[in-house]
Specification:
heterodimer, A: Rossmann fold, six-stranded mixed β-sheet, four-stranded antiparallel β-sheet, 26% strand, B: alpha/beta, abc type-2 transporter like fold, elongated
C-alpha cells in the first residue's frame, strides 16, 4: 500500500481553480517532488494532503487513513514544514523544539533532535534572530520532532543562498537515509533532480507529467540543447532543415535540440553557408566557444570562455559568429518548458 | 521567569499537555515583550509613582473641615480663631461633604460645632461640647489637630467658666484612603483593560498573519485547544502583571487594601474575562496586526478616561454618564474600589460582577462564532 494516495483533488477559490484534478501516489521511502512555478497549485495540494485545507472534490489517504475524516490521526504521524515558517514570538530555539515536542503524544528527545540538526549552538537564540538557513534547519527539525513516517517540505530552500541550500539538501538526504517518505515542492529543477526519486510537474493546478527525473528528461528533453543569440539570416525554418536538429525554439534566444551536437555546430559554422558573413573591421572573429551556465545545470558546454563569449570559424576573414553559446544536456527545466511553453521561474 | 520554570519543568523531562505548553509559552513570550509590558504594567507603576510624588509629603499643613450646626456670629468667630492658627486651613462644610473629605484623606479631622454654642458662651444656655472626629488610623496630623483644637477651644471659652469645651476625640467610622490606596485598584483596572485587550488581540492576529496558527494546526492539537491556550495565556499574563503590581503597590507605595483579597479575585477574574473577550472579538474584526493594534488603542484609550480610573465618573455631564455606564471598565473599577477602599462585601459588588460576566459571555460568544483561522 502506498503511503500517500491522492485521487482527483480539486480546490477552487472563487473562479480560480487552484487544484484541478490532481492524482498521485507516493510509495514508502520515496522522495517525491512537486515541481512547478509559483501559483501552480503545489502548496495548495500539499496543504490538502496535510489536512490543513479541505478540497472541493477528491480523496486523500495518508498511511492508509482518510485525511479528511481523521485529520488528527494523520497529523500525529506526519511532519510538516510550511513554506513561510513562523514560530511564536519571543521564543528561543530550544523552547520552540520543546514546545513542538509537547504537541505530540510521542516525540523524540529534544536534545537528540537539536544535535542532529546542529541547533545546539543556537539553542538560546530567539527564533526570529536566526539566518534563513538556520531557520529552515529548525523548521525541518520541528517537522521531524514526532519521528513521522511521512515528511512534507514546502519549498525548503526558497530564498536561501547557495551555501545554505546545499546544507539543506544534505539534511534532506539524511532524512531519505532514515527511510522516511518525503514529499517536497520546489521550483528549482536542480533540487528536484538531485533529491527526488520521482517528480510530478505541475502547472495551472494539473500534473502535466510524472516520472523519475531521468525518464522525464529522456522522454521530454532528450538529446543536447544548443542555445545562442539569433543570427541574422538564420530563421527557424533554416535551422530546422539543418542535419541532426530535432527541435527548434526561436525567440529571444535560439534553442536547438539535437542528438548530434558536433554535426549541428559544424553546419552552423560552415563558411560557405548563406548566413556566413564577411567579418567586419579588426580582422578575424573570435575563435572559441563561450559557455554560459549557472554552474548547477550539469550541462556540458563546448570550449571555455566568458558568458558572453563567441564561437566562430575565424580563418580568412569570413564566417559565422555565434554569440552567447551554451551547449548542455536536457534538464527538468527543458521538460517544463516543453510541456507548458513557460519557464519555471517566470 | 523562575515562576515559569517552576510551572513548566516539574520533574526532569517535562511532558506537559499541549494546552499547558502553548498557554505557558504565550505567557512567557508576553512577559518578554518589554515594549508591550511598558504600556501595561510599566505605565501602571509609573502612574502610581507620579501620583505618589504629587500628593505624598510636603511641608506641615493641617486641613480641617468644620460642620457648623450653630450658625451664629459666635460660631463663625470660633472658626475664624481656629483658622488664624499658623498652618491651619479650615473650611466650613455640611456634614456629608466634610466626612467625605475625611474619608479621602483631604482633611486630618472634622470638627462639629454644636447648636447652642453662642448661647453657652453668653451664659444663656447649657454647656456645650465641640466634637472632633478623626479617621480610624490615628495619624500624626490628626493628633496635632486634636491638640490645636483643644487649645483654641479652651482659649475661646475664656476665663475659667467651662461653658464650651472640647469633647474627647471620637473616631469616625470611615476608612481613610490615601492617594495610593485609590490608585491601586484603578491601576489594576488599567492593566486588565490594556493588556486584556492588547495581548490577546494583537497576539492572535499576529499569529494568524504570520501563519503561526497554521503551523500549529499542522500538529495533532485541535483548533479549539490552540485557541483556548492562547486566550488562557493572555488571561494568565494579565493576572501575573496584577500580582506584580499589587506587590509593588503594597510594599513600595504602601497602598492598603481594606477589603478581602479573596473577594477581589472575583471582579479581577470576571474583568479579565470581559476584556480578554473584547480582545478576542477584535481578532475576528482585524485582518492585519496593524489593524488590531489600532482597534485596541481606539477602544482602550477613550475607555481609560471614561471608565472611572483617572477621572471620577461624577465629573462627567449627564449625557456622558449614560455611555460611561455601558463601559465594562466603569463596573470593573467600581467593584475594585468598593472592595479595596471600602471593604465592601460580595453583595455590594454583585451588580458590577454580573455586568462584567455578561460582557465576557457576549464577547466570547460573538468572537468564537466569527473567528477566522486564515
Amino acid at each position: 500500500m502506498a503511503d500517500i494516495e491522492v485521487l482527483g483533488l480539486v480546490k477552487r477559490y472563487g473562479d480560480l481553480v487552484a487544484v484541478d484534478g490532481v492524482s498521485f501516489r507516493v510509495e514508502n521511502g520515496e522522495v517525491f517532488g512537486m515541481l512547478g512555478p509559483n501559483g501552480a497549485g503545489k502548496t495548495t495540494t500539499l496543504e490538502i494532503v496535510e489536512g490543513l485545507r479541505s478540497p472541493d472534490a477528491g480523496s486523500v489517504r495518508v498511511l492508509g487513513t482518510d485525511v479528511l475524516a481523521h485529520p488528527a490521526a494523520v497529523k500525529e504521524r506526519i511532519g510538516v514544514q510550511l513554506q513561510a515558517t513562523a514560530l511564536p514570538v519571543f521564543t528561543r530555539v530550544r523552547e520552540a523544539v520543546e514546545l513542538f515536542a509537547s504537541l505530540y503524544p510521542r516525540s523524540r528527545p529534544v536534545q537528540e533532535v537539536m544535535d542532529e540538526f546542529n541547533l545546539g549552538e543556537k539553542a538560546g537564540e530567539y527564533t526570529n534572530k536566526l539566518s534563513g538557513g538556520q531557520m529552515q534547519r529548525l523548521s525541518i527539525a520541528l517537522a521531524l520532532i514526532n519521528d513521522p513516517d511521512v515528511v512534507f517540505l514546502d519549498e525548503p530552500t526558497t530564498g536561501l543562498d547557495p551555501q545554505a541550500r546545499l546544507n539543506i539538501w544534505s539534511v534532506i538526504e539524511q532524512i531519505r537515509k532514515r527511510r522516511k517518505t518525503v514529499v517536497l515542492t520546489t521550483h528549482y529543477m536542480e533540487e528536484a533532480e538531485r533529491l527526488c526519486d520521482r517528480v510530478a510537474v505541475i502547472d495551472h493546478g494539473r500534473i502535466v507529467a510524472m516520472d523519475t527525473p531521468r525518464r522525464l528528461v529522456a522522454e521530454h528533453a532528450a538529446g543536447t540543447t544548443i542555445e545562442f543569440e539569433p543570427i541574422a539570416g538564420l530563421d527557424a525554418e533554416t535551422l530546422r532543415s539543418l542535419p541532426g536538429v530535432d527541435r527548434v525554439a526561436h525567440a529571444a534566444r535560439v534553442s536547438l535540440t539535437t542528438r548530434t551536437p558536433e554535426a549541428v555546430l559544424h553546419a552552423l559554422l560552415d563558411p560557405q553557408a548563406p548566413w556566413a558573413r564577411v567579418a567586419t573591421a579588426a580582422g578575424a572573429a573570435t575563435v572559441g566557444a563561450g559557455a554560459s551556465g549557472d554552474g548547477m545545470t550539469g550541462g556540458a558546454a563546448v570550449g571555455a570562455g566568458s558568458a558572453s563569449g563567441e564561437a566562430g570559424n575565424g580563418n580568412g576573414g569570413t564566417g559565422t559568429v555565434i554569440r552567447d553559446l551554451m551547449v548542455r544536456h536536457g534538464t527538468l527545466e527543458d521538460v517544463f518548458l516543453r510541456l507548458t511553453g513557460r519557464s519555471l521561474r517566470e | 521567569m523562575i515562576l515559569f520554570r517552576a510551572l513548566s519543568s516539574r520533574g526532569g523531562q517535562p511532558r506537559m499537555s499541549a494546552f499547558r505548553a502553548l498557554a505557558l509559552n504565550q505567557v512567557r513570550a508576553s512577559m518578554r515583550n518589554r515594549v508591550a509590558l511598558f504600556f501595561t504594567l510599566g505605565l501602571a507603576v509609573m502612574f502610581m509613582l507620579i501620583f505618589g510624588l504629587l500628593f505624598g509629603g510636603g511641608s506641615f499643613s493641617l486641613n480641617l473641615d468644620a460642620v457648623d450646626n450653630d450658625h451664629t456670629p459666635t460660631s463663625q468667630q470660633y472658626i475664624k480663631v481656629l483658622s488664624s492658627v499658623s498652618g491651619v486651613t479650615i473650611s466650613s462644610k455640611a456634614h456629608d461633604p466634610a466626612f467625605n473629605d475625611l474619608k479621602t484623606d483631604n482633611v486630618a479631622a472634622v470638627i462639629v460645632i454644636p447648636q447652642g454654642l453662642a448661647a453657652a458662651v453668653a451664659g444663656r444656655g447649657p454647656a456645650q461640647q465641640v466634637q472632633i472626629y478623626q479617621a480610624q488610623q490615628g495619624s500624626t496630623s490628626s493628633s496635632i489637630a486634636d491638640e490645636v483644637v483643644a487649645h483654641v477651644t479652651a482659649d475661646f471659652a475664656g476665663g475659667g467658666h467651662a461653658a464650651v469645651s472640647l469633647a474627647p476625640p471620637r473616631t469616625a467610622t470611615v476608612n481613610q484612603v490615601t492617594e495610593m490606596d485609590v490608585m491601586l485598584p484603578a491601576m489594576i483596572a488599567y492593566i486588565i483593560l490594556q493588556s486584556g485587550i492588547n495581548f490577546v488581540a494583537i497576539g492572535l492576529v499576529d499569529m494568524r498573519v504570520r501563519q503561526v496558527l497554521r503551523r500549529l494546526r499542522a500538529t495533532p492539537v485541535s483548533a479549539r485547544t490552540i485557541l483556548a491556550s492562547q486566550i488562557a495565556g493572555g488571561a494568565l499574563t494579565v493576572l501575573l502583571q496584577i500580582l506584580i503590581l499589587v506587590l509593588v503597590g503594597t510594599f513600595v507605595f504602601h497602598a492598603r487594601n481594606y477589603g478581602s483579597w479573596l473577594l477581589l479575585i472575583i471582579p479581577v477574574a470576571l474583568g479579565t474575562a470581559a476584556f480578554v473577550g473584547i480582545g478576542f472579538l477584535l481578532t475576528a474584526a482585524a485582518r492585519t496586526s496593524e489593524a488590531a493594534r489600532g482597534m485596541a488603542a481606539f477602544i482602550a484609550f477613550p475607555m481609560m478616561f471614561l471608565g472611572g480610573i483617572f477621572i471620577p465618573i461624577d465629573a462627567f455631564p449627564q449625557v456622558l454618564q449614560t455611555i460611561v455606564h455601558i463601559l465594562p471598565l466603569t463596573w470593573l473599577s467600581d467593584a475594585l474600589k468598593e472592595v479595596m477602599n471600602d471593604g465592601a462585601g460580595l453583595g455590594s459588588i454583585a451588580v458590577d460582577c454580573l455586568v462584567l460576566a455578561a460582557w465576557a459571555v457576549v464577547t466570547f460568544a460573538i468572537a468564537s462564532w466569527r473567528f477566522r483561522w486564515e
